[in-house]
Amino acid sequence: MTETISLTEAPKLGGLYLKAALGAVPLPLFSARTSRIPDRAIELRGLKVDADNLAAYCHATGLRFGDALPLTYPFVLTFPVVTQLVAARDFPFVAVGAVHAENLIERSREISVSEPLDIRAHVENLREHPKGLLVDAISEVSVGRELVWRQVTTFLHQQRTSLSGGPKPEPKPDEVPPPPLRTLRVDQPLIHRYAAAAGDRNPIHMSALGAKAFGFPRSIAHGMWSAAAILSAIEGRVPAKTTYAVKFGKPILLPSTVNVYADHVGGGWDLSLRHPKKGYPHLTATLR
Predict the structure, then answer these.
(1) For 6-27, what is each residue's pLDDT tens digit?
(2) Cβ burial, residue 279 (10 Å; 0-12/13-18/19+)
(3) Parent domain of 204
């Protein structure tokens, strides 16, 4: 039977990051990690949007600040709840250093800043990947009995699995990218602003030293920063009812300038962020 934890306020991320960091230290008196995801869900009811935080988020991502929440903003609201789930000591892997692999958002209508929101989150579908373990964090946002926003966030924890060590696909040759719609410049101060607004202070984003501890040559931009920032290219043309599917490619090393592409197709958009010289994707997405 699912264990449901009911909260009266959003978890404090500072304490959760400390808990996650300590979770990397083996402590024999505490429960050990298991190979299964705990059957657990967290609920938070009546959450009110902080308009100042929303403004800071919009400033960091380039999105419009108004009465309606940007499509990606509820990620910020659900992030503390998801973090509490994955920071638990009986979770299959340590949350610190995990990277965002894919993201799927389904929105049934626009959400007003003034609406009280109910959040429910759980984690499922632990599976192996050649680079480590994948899990899906499912977040749902409701207004009363109406489900208005749902997200599947896929996290990758890099480690050896039974799929590791297999033949690697041939690297694709670099391609000269076509002229972009626009470019985006991202540096450490911008990512610090995003981290403050989003609450995501994973060490891989905050400093080169923290990133190198997890195998990255320099600090990297948040995947959800790029998923939000690219939507500024089609601001005002995102349907109220929409599905936004994102796959993250090679990380954006800081500082960088990336190319933005937005192609209008029947019923929606194909979006991408690409390296300006080598053409490989940092992000590919569809909005329908």
Answers:
(1) 999 999 888 887 776 666 555 5
(2) middle
(3) 3-287
